[in-house]
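Practice problem: predict the structure.
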Amino acid sequence: MPFEQLLVFATNLDPEDLVDDAFLRRMGYRLYINPPDRDMYGKIFQQYVEANGFSFESSQLDYLFKLYEIDKRPLRACEPRDLIQRCSDLCKYEDRPRILVDDLLNLAWRNYFGAAPTV
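Answer:
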């Protein structure tokens, strides 16, 4: 069966620390993806909130930004998905209503990052 193959490498490490110049030249195309700004992060967050059956309110996003600021963490595009998935899992596990409140976001934050800052 004929097929087309595409090999993709993804890393958060500096490629020059992993391979030499000759390898990078043979790799051909490289793409750097910038971290999201607050606006883009908010859009990603809202999309995952609604896709997981929660209602979106801007206060949820404001609370999350406070956690990022206090913890001095950069925004990452994958984190809205991961945090909302944890919220969804916690609601299922604890048999709680699918309502996104600060304590649920805080619990998901602690579960994901290991600790939550005091807000």
